[in-house]
Design goal:
Largest sheet: 6 strands, mixed
Strand content: 25-35%
Strand order of the largest sheet: 2-3-1-4-11-5
Shape: elongated
Distance between the termini: 28 Å
Order of helices and strands: EHEEHEHEEEHEHEHEEHH
Low-confidence stretches: none
Helix content: 25-40%
Bound molecules: 1-O-pyrophosphono-5-O-phosphono-alpha-D-ribofuranose
Oligomer: single chain
Number of helices: 8
Length: 209
């Protein structure tokens, strides 16, 4: 049996995803201990997990440092990594949306100033609708941009909607639904196909319960 390297996104989503792996018999008890350790191995079940920054998981998988990984659809759409998308885990459900100040819609005649962490998604969306935009790429706290008149709108992830609500913003348009996906490195999918297929089938079975 070949060892499978699995990249998990550090944080709540990664812990939930790991919970499913644990349920289907690929647990690694040490992970649950409170520590700063980042790599965990269970030789018997043939898996090695490591915690990566969520936006970096696809990089590990694309370059083969991880055979499989859990990554948000937002990251897949934004960076377009060359990986196989195997399964929708239905976790971390949220949506990519255009939002702005409540009760105000930007004039359609002027170039739309869009603040976002997701430049590619925003560009593709407005291009498909023939709308001219000016992208302002930010790295976080996107919601303040329209409040300070840095932008007209934002394109960002909306989960519960409370960040928007508490800042007097509202969704103008939904762009795309997002959830966590299981992805695989393309070469690993060939050379470790039995191992990957086995895990994938077990995950699918668990998700259908
Ligand atoms: C994300 C996203 C929104 C918020 C949405 O931010 O960018 O700001 O969560 O969640 P809600 O609808 O449940 O309020 P994150 O916490 O990742 O921080 P960021 O400002 O660095 O993007």
């Amino acid at each position: 049996m070949k060892m499978l390297n699995i990249a998990l996104p550090k944080g709540r989503l990664g812990e939930k995803a790991y919970g499913i792996f644990e349920k289907i018999g690929y647990g690694c008890p040490e992970i649950r201990e409170d520590s700063r350790k980042l790599i965990f191995e269970n030789a018997e079940s043939g898996v090695r997990y490591f915690w990566a920054k969520p936006s970096d998981v696809a990089i590990y998988v694309e370059r083969g440092a991880a055979d499989i990984g859990i990554v948000g659809k937002d990251i897949l759409l934004e960076y377009g990594p060359d990986v196989y998308e195997l399964l929708d885990l239905g976790l971390g459900k949220c949506r990519m949306a255009a939002a702005g100040p409540k009760g105000r819609r930007p004039s359609p005649d002027r170039t739309l100033r869009v603040a976002t962490k997701f430049s590619r998604i925003a560009r593709a969306y407005y291009e498909s609708r023939g709308r001219e935009i000016d992208i302002i790429h930010l790295n976080g706290s996107i919601e303040i941009a329209p409040l300070l008149d840095l932008s007209d709108i934002i394109v960002d992830i909306v989960e519960t909607g409370s960040t928007l609500r508490e800042n007097d913003l509202e969704v103008y348009e939904e762009i795309v639904p997002i959830s966590a996906r299981l992805v695989a490195n393309k070469a690993a999918y060939k050379f470790k196909s039995a191992e990957i297929e086995r895990i994938c089938a077990a995950l699918r079975g668990e998700l259908e319960k």
